[in-house]
Amino acid sequence: MKNEDEIKVFIKKYNQITEDLERYVENTERIIEEKTKEIKKKNSKLRELSIKDELTGLYNRRFFNEVFPEDYNFALRENMYLNFAIMDLDDFKKINDTYGHQAGDECLKVFSKVLRKHFHRKSDKLFRYGGEEFVVYYISKEKTNFLILLEKFRMDLEKTHILYEKNKISLTVSVGAFSEIPKDAKYQNMIARADENLYMAKRLGKNRVYFKKCT
């Protein structure tokens, strides 16, 4: 009888220890899962910060260098159009020299806001390429009204005025653009060609879109 009682007590204690252990494992797994989600969320935020330009909120040059070769190769492989533009604010140094760099920063913020207003689709990719230079591109199966979109953006920007410490600042932009299906794997050549078109836009008087198929 005594042995039976001892066995019952042992089984009861064993079951209690097992239940405690199961609860501990469940709690540990829950904590690990929560911490893992927390780490992933923090890593996602850090990733977002690392690829965004702090001033304008657009993607930065680093991210452009990462994703553009991939997108270019996708367009090449799928025989799709790459609609690509490099744009540069006209006489931006003069704005900085006249009104100060904080005024220049405000102009870049307003510029980016107007840019996002006209290129806000999921397929549109916008970058602060460097200083006052920006890149916009998207991929399409067919020819699109890319030139019209760029012209609407340019005209809208021209009508936009920035008020800074009672000063009224006007902005214009020169754009070098093209829309074509990539023919080879040298994506650097397309960037250079768009840059050539930008140079022509500047040379022809600024505040214009130079849209010419690259040869």
Structure description:
This protein has 215 residues and is of the alpha+beta class. The chain has 6 helices and 7 strands, in the order ααβααββαβββαβ. It has helices at residues 2-51, 61-78, 92-99, 101-118, 146-159, 187-203; strands at 81-89, 125-130, 133-140, 161-164, 167-170, 173-180, 209-211. The strands form 2 sheets. Strands 2-3-1-6-7 form a 5-stranded mixed β-sheet, with helices on both faces. Strands 4-5 form a two-stranded antiparallel ribbon. Helix 3 packs across helix 4 (101-118) and helix 4 (101-118) runs antiparallel to helix 5 (146-159). The longest helix has 50 residues, at 2-51.
Report the span from N to C terminus: 101 Å
Low-confidence runs: none
> What is the quaternary state of this protein?
single chain
Strand order of the largest sheet: 2-3-1-6-7
Order of helices and strands: HHEHHEEHEEEHE
